[in-house]
Amino acid sequence: MRMTMTTMMTMTTTRRRTTTITMTMMMMMMTLMMMITTMTTITMLLVIVTIMLLLLLMTMLLLMMRWRLKSRTRTRATTTTTTTTTTMMMMMMMMMMMMMMMMMMMMMMMTMTMTMTMMMMMMMMMMMMMMIMMMMMIMMR
User: Fold this and answer.
1) Is the pLDDT of residue 17 over 50?
2) How do residues 91-109 score in pLDDT, each as one tens digit?
3) Ordered alpha helix ranges (H), 1-141
4) What is the SS3 assignment for 137?
């Protein structure tokens, strides 16, 4: 996790928006993988830790966004603010999605029937697809 954080810091300085979005996606994937691994070995504590890590990462990203807004020149204020606000909104959406995922996972733990798990997996895939689509829309802008 520390490694990812450092890479994020380096990436953001070089290329502005695209890298941050990609990094967030990577983070999501990593966290999801971690979630799956934790679910196999039934330990609630690890899950909670992952949630906490996610929240921390999100807050860090938001702070970075704000810092960047402050650091930029006043000449391009109108153009930069809109894009950053959209990214902020995306971050919030991501957080909401992840919370939904957590809930799904908890449900899966409660009822470990094959049909239910399959349904949940399908839902997750759909969520991921939606997120990617949103990202693409932002990238196009």
Assistant:
1) yes
2) 666 666 666 666 666 666 6
3) 2-14, 17-40, 44-71, 77-110, 114-140
4) helix
